[in-house]
Write a structure and sequence with these properties.
433 residues, alpha+beta, eight-stranded mixed beta sheet, five-stranded mixed beta barrel, 11 helices, 25% strand, binds adenosine-5'-triphosphate
């Protein structure tokens, strides 16, 4: 018999159906045994009645979380969750689970499982419908960001992750043995998305892994994460990049709400807020000023505390969860950001509910100026030779930005840690599972 997804059962009332999934819950009474079967599309109640003798006698002994195939007649049943239930005629154990589960999928009230234990048994943790929803949302979010980029005429690229020169300075880089030579894991696709501009690709995007040998033990830093990067040619200023990004995010979040809003409301207990464009913009100088008014001193760059405070102020003043912080001093930015006359840069960061989710900038595309800027920052030109030569033979003015996708999810779904917004956590202390 062909398997029917639980979400499709509505079309088969009155028929004999076959469903497959995990044994979510089992409640036995003397006259009836209730089985909740769970798979990625939903949960269905199944019942074993004394008439089906074999099923009735054995089903209660099946350990929770075993994988089952159940066949029976689908009926409407007002009292069942979802309004339907299957009267089990036969079942088969496709995979028997151990009796003792290291963590429970159905948590009873007040049960507090520590995060490390939940991360140790991540594949069981992810069986919880609420946890799985995060990844359904990620799928939609990323699909819609791509969709927006494609509509705007971007090409997709996949740049190498094994590289010869670190792109973001040397401190946070992993080294690997590359056939006896020293190589690095890419800390961003920065150099290569700029190369694509020199190749005349005009607009590109990439979603891919980013590696940072980051020792910060925070709720928002990982050693490996997924970055969503965009780079665009022939821009006049960074303003065009901010407009692109705010429209892309608004579009993607609206689609998340459209597709998953009801389920988010049910499992997370709140409504997704779609931001309005334009997002507020605040220069770093203005940030310092408003922070000073509330007794916080931050100059040049925002600490995580400063970001949080700015998020609160923007929320109060503009009822907005996003804010672009602009006008960073060149002394705080990498050598490839374009300078303004006043020793500032054409760069920006985007904060979402008080946390940085993006850095972006117009880049310096003029070979001689770029070389001078690198020297000015005390960098050795030799390891940068390949990168610099991308600009030697003509390169359009351009700029772009990089987003940490898990940070968006974290803020969108009010998750307490980025570890809940990645399939598996990679930090200094965690390399398994
Ligand atoms: P932060 O100041 O938070 O450490 P950053 O300035 O080093 O971030 P960028 O190099 O600008 O970050 O990277 C672009 C984006 O990638 C960030 O805005 C953030 O969303 C994400 N990101 C950066 N580092 C990490 C990390 N270690 N773990 C998860 N996401 C990260």
């Amino acid at each position: 018999m062909e398997r029917i997804l639980i979400s499709e059962l509505g079309k088969h009332v009155g028929e004999k159906v076959c469903v497959k999934g995990f044994l979510h819950e089992l409640r036995g009474q003397s006259k009836v045994k209730f089985v909740l079967l769970r798979e990625s599309s939903g949960i269905i109640q199944c019942v074993a009645l004394p008439e089906s003798k074999e099923v009735f006698a054995t089903i209660e002994k099946v350990p929770k979380e075993s994988v089952l195939k159940i066949m029976g007649i689908l009926k409407l049943e007002k009292q069942a969750p979802g309004g339907m239930e299957i009267a089990i005629e036969e079942y088969e154990i496709l995979s028997k689970a151990s009796l003792e589960l290291p963590i429970q999928v159905v948590e009873k009230g007040g049960e507090e499982i520590s995060l490390p234990l939940r991360l140790d048994y991540r594949w069981i943790e992810l069986r919880k419908p609420k946890q799985a929803l995060i990844f359904k949302i990620w799928t939609t979010l990323e699909e819609e960001m791509r969709h927006y980029c494609l509509k705007k005429g971007c090409m997709q690229i996949h740049s190498p992750k094994i590289i010869g020169t670190p792109s973001e300075g040397g401190a946070e880089v992993f080294t690997v043995d590359y056939f006896g030579r020293k190589a690095f894991l890419a800390q961003s696709p920065q150099f290569y998305k700029q190369m694509a501009m020199s190749a005349g690709f005009e607009k590109v995007f990439e979603s891919g892994p980013v590696f940072r040998a980051d020792r910060s033990h925070t709720v928002r830093h990982l050693a490996e994460f997924t970055g969503f990067d965009v780079e665009i040619s022939f821009i006049e200023s960074e303003e065009e990049l901010m407009r692109f990004e705010e429209e892309m995010l608004t579009h993607a979040i609206a689609k998340v709400k459209e597709k998953h809003g009801t389920e988010i409301q049910k499992l997370f207990g709140f409504e997704i807020k779609v931001p309005l464009v334009p997002f507020p913009r605040l220069s770093m100088g203005e940030c310092s000023k408003v922070l000073k008014e509330v007794g916080v001193i931050e100059e040049g760059d925002l600490s995580s505390e400063g970001e949080k405070k700015i998020g609160e102020i923007i929320k109060e003043k503009y009822s907005h969860e996003f804010v672009f912080v602009t006008g960073y001093k060149y002394s705080k930015r990498p050598f490839y950001h374009m300078k303004t006359k006043e020793e500032g840069t054409k760069s920006f960061e985007l904060l979402y509910s008080g946390m940085e989710i993006t850095t972006g900038a117009q880049r310096e595309h003029r070979y001689e100026v770029l070389k001078e800027q690198a020297i000015g920052k005390g960098l050795s030109l030799e390891p940068l030779a390949d990168y610099l030569s991308f600009f030697k033979y003509g390169c359009p003015p351009h700029g772009g930005f990089g987003i940490g996708t898990s940070r968006i999810l974290m803020q969108l779904l009010h998750l307490g840690t980025i570890r809940e917004a990645v399939l598996l956590t990679r930090t200094e202390e965690r390399l398994t599972p």
